[in-house]
Predict the 3D structure of the following.
Amino acid sequence: MARQMRPVDFTVVWVSALPVELAAAQEMLDEQYDDLPQASDDAPIYTYGRIGQHNVVLACLPAGQTGTNPAAGVAMQMRATFRAIRFGLMVGIGGGVPSKEDDIRLGDIVVSQPNKGHSGVIQYDFGKSTPSGFERTGFLNSPPRILLNAIVKLRANHDRGKSDLSTHVSRISKLPKFARNRLGDDTLFEGTYNHIGGNDCKLCNNAKQVQREARVKDTPEIHYGTIASGNQVMRYGMDRDRVSSEFGGVLCFEMEAAGLMNNFPCLVVRGICDYADSHKNKKWQGYAAGMAAAYTKELLSVIPAAEVVKTQTVEAATVG
């Protein structure tokens, strides 16, 4: 029988927005615990388990609800239920922003990290109308120090060739939903060229494809920097590049993180499933979700449980 736990036994929250992201997270558990009684009728149905030394609660946004407001709602419910939580992890898929500076490809992993005066996540659609145009306002909190320190340690391990990422990737890739081998080519079109129509790009002009050098290794690369969050899907290349330029370069777009950062200290991890343009489809979502989950499992592995216990609870860190 799986181990029976109490809400106070959990120190880490892992939040997903889509069922495929939750499935990827569940596959990363080293042990799954019995369900706990629901705190209320409208509370999320959680998954409980262990990853390494850490007791982790997995949560997913309600079906069909995406965006910053549903994410904030789930975060507030979890904060009230799990009083010993120290930090959160927002893990799933995102739309990549390829550039000369950042050679982002499908399946790559993007991690929020303070960069160029930004906290790691910016809400690009939050602000006010002024006579001179739309003025963005507000500032989101940075990830908690314990997670930024973990990033440093993990990056150093990777630079030394010490990584368990391929082990976690291999494990989840055995499931067809998360496998790479049936996805075909990774195709990027010029930002000014829009999709012709249909569920794929068979009708699109191949001359408008961006020619990129083949990578030496067919494994995801990890990028650290700014993630753009908003309530609407970014689906046009020109808009993607314009917004990215306005913020000095962002790595990807997504729809939930801005709802968490100021109410729930967390790190955002995204697997790139499309290029945030009109050519986007759902073909790469499973693989991208698996890559993000695999990275997150490895990140947790370098954080000592004793350091987590010494960290402020989310409740204490967000008072006032």
In short: The mean pLDDT is 91. The first strand starts at residue 12 and ends at 16. The CA atoms of residues 236 and 277 lie 4 Å apart. The longest helix spans residues 285-301.
